[in-house]
Each structure stands twice: as structure tokens, then as C-alpha cells.
Write a structure and sequence with these properties.
Length: 418
């Protein structure tokens, strides 16, 4: 007795198994991970180092070759495709990985750590880096702007930090980045006449500020088998402390403070970029989701946090979601379900007009059963719902409909022939 014959003779068992598979497929449809695009694994990264003031030849000889020699010690690095570009003051090594590296992110993490502690590089003093950039496959789930036409950039930055701290409490949150942040600085405007009056040089003042604005170990003392650590208090915490800093003495022996020879202002540093949303200055908060989660549910959790935070912000500060991947994914899934239902209804109508009711019922049942089984298997093997998988399902709907009719019609014909 073959498999088909067994399923027909044990109809109750067959129907029970099919019902279980259908329920599992429906459950998987609503719970399986979703995202807009499939996860891309890019086997490529950049190792960048800066050597300010050096010529391209000096960078090549003293930095680039040493980095390449160090990288080629790793078996994961594909030597045939790895290249480097050297310019005045900077080198960029384009690192490719071998095809057998299944999890590149593990290698990049290892490389970052090893470069921090590597002693064999023996790079000259003044080299900044090397740093590793491998985040080419990351995609933002949401881009949220914190915008205002009244708040300063410093205030916007604080609002963005508060938003970021609240979103970070969502379990599925991965990386959070801020764009458009304008840093503050304290600018010292020296008065050359007063410098001459007190006989103080600019270099002298700079040396004093640099030596004071630092934290360094100051030792400890042992008292009755207990160690007491000393701490210095030379780190500036307020602009007034900088102004009160003693930078020298006058010819009469009086103490000269920084505020006596210069004017101090807290200002915005020169911006490298400027972001505006709806004509207002803004800071963008980019939110990424951990792989293997449902982006639609993630979007709902993040939107809830946004609503909670926006209630605490002034009316002049507005939060706008610029890119909303959860909404796009939800629309795609809804579109697929609509196309799916249209296909089932169309098949049922056509078959009922041309075939007996029982035959039409079998053909119509085969379509949702096939899709449910497919989705259950996708969930089992870790295949997410995204644009590629949804489009694939929509494309094969025609094949599923056609097979359901052809197989059922052929089966009825075989029954008629005994």
C-alpha cells in the first residue's frame, strides 16, 4: 500500500495532520520574523589609519605596508582581492574575506580587538587608528527626527539622548545612531594688549590649561593596613573654573587669572554637516533592529516609546518618523494577503462553475494548505518574511492555483477509470 492510498484510507488521520499543519502555518505567518529587505552579509571591510602631516610615500612605507603585513596573517583575509589606497596623511585598506567565512561579523569583531592591542604593527607616533569599518550591510528600521525652530542644537541633542535612552529599553533594539549632532566648545579670545601688559606669553597659557585639564594617578598612602588613594581636582567642570585658572603672575607679584587676559564663550563648534527637517534644524535618530525579530511588532514598541517621550517635550519640539520600515513591511504583508485571498476566491468561483462542488472544495482547499505548509517550513528554516520572499510567494501563486486544478481534475479522471 503506497503513501497516497494510506492517506485516503485513513482519512481522519490525514485531515487531522492537515489541520495541524494549517494552524502552524497561520501561526507562523503572524509570528515569524519580518523585515523590509533580506539580511545582506557583505564580505568586505575597510581598515583606515590617519597620519597627519605625512606624505603619501611616508604613509605607504611606515603605515600601509605594516597594516597589510599584519592583515595577511589572518587566514580569513582573501589576499588576492585585498587592496590599499594611500594618500597624503591617510591610508585605506579594502579588506575582502574568503568565501568560507560564514560569519564575517565575528572576524571583524576579533580584528577590532586585535588591532587595539597589537604591538607588532610598530606604527610611528602620531598615527591615529587603525580603525575598522564593516557596517555596510546594516539597515535602519526607523529614522526619527527631533526638530525645532526654537530650541538650540545643544537642547536638541539632549532631547535626542532622552529619546535614544527610551528606545534602547525595547528588547529587539540593536544599534542606535545620531546624525546632525552639533558639538559645543569653549572658545578663549585672548586680548593681546593685556598679554603684553602682564608679560605673559600665549604658549605659557596653553601649557597651563593643558596641564590642568587632565586626570592622572596621584598615588596612595597606606594607613594602618588600609590604602587611601589620592585624587587630583584639575579637571574643569564649568566655564567659570576655566576663567579662574591662574596662568601667571604680574611684575608686581599679583596673580593673573585667565579671565583677566581673555574672554571665554561657550559656542557651537564649526559644523561638518547640517540637517533640517520641514525647514527646521533637526537631529536624526537612526534605529536598527536585532536580526530574527518581527519588525512590525518592533515598530509598535518604538512608536509607543516615541509617544511617551513626546509628551515630556515642549510643544516647540516635534518628533517625526522619516523612514518607517515596520509600516512598509506591514503594507507588503497586507498586500500579499489580499492577493492571496483574491486568488482563492477566483479559483473557487471558476471551479464551482466548471466542476462538481466536492471537487471544487478539494481544489480550493489545496491552495491555502500549500501556502500554509510553505510558510511553516520557512519559519522552521529561519527564512524571514521580506520583499524577496513575499514576491516569490506571490509569483508562485499562479503555479499553486494551476496545480490545484490540474491535479484535482486528473485525480477525478483516475477515479472514474477505477
Amino acid at each position: 500500500m503506497n503513501f497516497i492510498e494510506r492517506t485516503l484510507k485513513n482519512r481522519q488521520v490525514t485531515l487531522t495532520i492537515l489541520a495541524i499543519v494549517f494552524v502552524v502555518g497561520v501561526y507562523s505567518l503572524f509570528t515569524m520574523p519580518r523585515r523590509e529587505d533580506p539580511k545582506l552579509t557583505v564580505p568586505q571591510g575597510l581598515v583606515i589609519a590617519y597620519y597627519p602631516g605625512a606624505t603619501a610615500t611616508q604613509v605607504e612605507e611606515q603605515v600601509t605596508k605594516k597594516i597589510e603585513q599584519y592583515l595577511f596573517q589572518y587566514e580569513e583575509v582573501y589576499k588576492g582581492k585585498t587592496t590599499s589606497t594611500t594618500r597624503d596623511g591617510v591610508t585605506v585598506v579594502n579588506v575582502w574575506l574568503n568565501d568560507n567565512v560564514k560569519k564575517p561579523e565575528i572576524f571583524w569583531s576579533k580584528l577590532r580587538h586585535q588591532l587595539l592591542v597589537a604591538k607588532s604593527l610598530d606604527l610611528p607616533d602620531g598615527v591615529m587608528g587603525p580603525i575598522v569599518n564593516s557596517d555596510f550591510g546594516d539597515t535602519e528600521a526607523l529614522l526619527i527626527s527631533v526638530e525645532s525652530d526654537k530650541a538650540s542644537h545643544a537642547e536638541l541633542n539632549e532631547y535626542a539622548k532622552e529619546l535614544e535612552n527610551n528606545i534602547r529599553t525595547v528588547k529587539a533594539t540593536s544599534k542606535i545612531k545620531r546624525y546632525g549632532e552639533q558639538k559645543e566648545q569653549i572658545t578663549v579670545y585672548f586680548n593681546s594688549d593685556k598679554l603684553s601688559l602682564y608679560g605673559i606669553s600665549l604658549r605659557q597659557v596653553v601649557d597651563v590649561l593643558q596641564s590642568e585639564n587632565s586626570i592622572s594617578p596621584t598615588g596612595e598612602i597606606e594607613i594602618q593596613e588600609k590604602n587611601v588613594t589620592f585624587y587630583n581636582s584639575g579637571y574643569y567642570t564649568d566655564i567659570s573654573e576655566i576663567g579662574n585658572q591662574i596662568v601667571g603672575t604680574s611684575e608686581t607679584g599679583g596673580v593673573v587669572r585667565l579671565r583677566d587676559i581673555a574672554e571665554l564663550k561657550r559656542e557651537q563648534s564649526e559644523p561638518s554637516s547640517n540637517i533640517s527637517v520641514n525647514g527646521k534644524k533637526a537631529i536624526i535618530v537612526a534605529v536598527q533592529m536585532n536580526e530574527g525579530n518581527n519588525v512590525v511588532w518592533f515598530g509598535k514598541d518604538v512608536n509607543q516609546k516615541i509617544d511617551e517621550v513626546s509628551k515630556r517635550f515642549p510643544s516647540s519640539v516635534k518628533l517625526t518618523t522619516i523612514v518607517n520600515q515596520p509600516e512598509i513591511v506591514n503594507e507588503n504583508v497586507t498586500h500579499f494577503m489580499r492577493e492571496f485571498l483574491i486568488a482563492i476566491i477566483a479559483v473557487i468561483i471558476v471551479i464551482m462553475l466548471l466542476l462538481p462542488l466536492r471537487v471544487a472544495a478539494v481544489a480550493a482547499t489545496a491552495i491555502p494548505m500549500t501556502i500554509a505548509t510553505t510558510i511553516a517550513l520557512m519559519h522552521t528554516f529561519g527564512i524571514e518574511l521580506h520583499q524577496v520572499s513575499l514576491i516569490s510567494l506571490i509569483v508562485v501563486l499562479g503555479m499553486v492555483v494551476d496545480d490545484a486544478i490540474v491535479v484535482t481534475d486528473n485525480y477525478v479522471d483516475l477515479l472514474d477509470k477505477g
